[in-house]
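Bumping with the actual sequence this time:
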Amino acid sequence: MFYRFIHNRRPYILLPIIIFFAVGSALAQTLSGHVYDEHHNPIPGAQIYIPTLGRGAVTNTKGHFEIDNLPNGVYAVQFSFVGYLSQVKNINTAETQDSMRIVLRQSTLNLPGLTVTGTPQATDALSSSQSIVSVDQKQFQRNSGATAMSAIRNLPGVSLVTTGSGIAKPVIHGLSSQRIVVMVNGVRQEAQNWGPDHGPEISTFNVNRIEVVKGPSSVLYGAGALGGVVNVIGPGLPTSDNGTHKLGGNLYLQGFSNNNQGAGAISLHGASGSFGYRAQFSHRAAGDISTPDGKLSNSGLRKTNGSFMIGTTQSWGSVSLDYNHLYQHLQIHDAPGSTGFQPLKNDLLHVHANIPTKDFRLEVQAGYQMNDRREFDAATDNQPSLHLKLNTGTVDVQMHHNPIGPLYGTMGFSTMIQTNRSLAANKLIPGYNLQNFAGFLYEQAKFGPLNLSAGGRFDTRNLDVSDTPAMNIRAVNRKYSAFSGSVGAAVHLTADLSLSANLGHAWRAPTAFEMFANGVHEGTYQYDIGSPDLVPETATNIQGSLKWITSKVVAEVSAYNNGINKYIYGDPTGKFDPKSGYQIYDLKQANARIRGIDASLQAEVTDWLSLNGGYSMLRGDNLKLHVPLPYMPANHGDIGLRIQKRELGIFHDPYLSIQTSFYAKQDRVAPNEPDSKAYTLANVSLGSQLNVGKTPVQCDIIVDNLFNKAYIDHLSRYRDLPALNPGRNIVLKVQIPFTLVR
């Protein structure tokens, strides 16, 4: 099957190679300068990073940096150092020849840096017309649990659909699954995304940063991005200084008290001359979840991940290849005595080429994903009750042109080809073949304090559903085509304050599951019945934000209104399947509206104390029936404080964080949908860096649900059983970096 898939799509698989040899090289330039603090002292170890090119440098003892072999073009450059407010400069390498002088201001806040997700070119938060929130590497390492998505659970406007501790699926402004695009290093994560119980298959040890774009983003990320994008950014390709050879790595150890979970990982990364390489291996194992009412039987998990990356960075550009394999064994908590489980395998092969020329920069991403999902009703079963195999090939080509007056932007096209096979006797969904082709144009312009952006995209999609006698389905063909577009503006009212607005139009086609499902869906505890007459959803969203970013205060308030025509939803009928006992859900459509407000604040009170808080509220309405939409997250907020010092005896950068999260009662529910009670959770974390010899060891202790509160999250898939969410959990995390060759 693998050979046949590749053979039939040879033009798309070979496209990156053809383009690679077809383009010319660019002129090489050098960027240099010094980084100082507010008292004009040089800052050694400050980081200079150009995300568009994946290039960077670190200042020496005199605060000096130099990056050579840069192609002509305009790039956003970030200057950062721990404990300081980052600076972002837009640099035209064809014009900038003088040595730069950068001054950074001290700050104890978690400060937003450059974002690479909302627009084709990296930009700072104040210049973006969309609301973008992020989790950096340190925040991710402290906040992530058994899943990568657990690290974003407290971001304003973001929630999670959870199934125990092993599955977490992002929700942005009430939208999830096929309405959210999850990107992993530039490649769409497809992996049976239609299932609310199917979380993104991402290793927690292979993430540097997560960015979340709130609002329609179909122009850049394709059909399905009605609610937004979650962009998972892994470690980049290592580079060496002055052609030397270097090799190092990290050892990670984690322990969780709640379910006797243990996890460990080792990574190696190195570079020699212009070539870089990286490898990582991790394993995680956990027993049954503990709640204030006792353990949830058959709720354990095992996860194993391995990955590697190789590539080169030259004056003509860069090219890299990375491969990731993830295996998961997830137990299915159900009725007492149940022993069902799901073995999942996901393989991702990715090639990325970044080739600047004199007038434009060509970027090519080609990915191939193989997802194998099986489900067994009991531990003693030899044959799966459900077996799905999904193969996905993607090619994205983007041409980023250099400025034409104030205008700079990107044009490109993308292709996605899928084959999905249902191999077990039980057929929850039929097999199908899918092809999607698209072209887009996105332009930006800067006029002093005003930043404008606009883009348009056209998609065509062809879905061929296979003959499936077991489901009484004859071969069916569906063709779709649609236009997506967006316009946005951000204006700097002052150097630290900006006002932005964005209007976006997006769409998505119904999935084979939504049209043809007919059976028990174990992971969601539902009996789903699809509708073959479903038509595409279209969404028009307007959003406005006020952002204030200084070294002492980081704040944002945003409001949005998302009108969705032909919204597809599972309607709980109140009837139950006699064999499984699960409630029957009919897939239906109705016009819908989701609107809400997000607010967040960080404030530095002193050089050792900072406060933070946030609140998110939304309403989702079925405009046809004049009732609430099902599975809308409850209004929720956070308030907390953070105490930290640069040095405290033998402790370096010690911190203590106390966070309280409160969730309102969710009684705006659809007919036959259970409501949820209000609850408040307290979380505490503390940590520090300890120098063991010359090795800086980072240790963190996190206590989730400090008071062992009994609660049921409204988006927990266990709520229909019903079963409580996890109780108190004490987590120990240790990170040990090491150097083998300097």
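The tokens above came from a reply further down the thread. Confidence is low (pLDDT under 50) at residues 1-7, 9-26.
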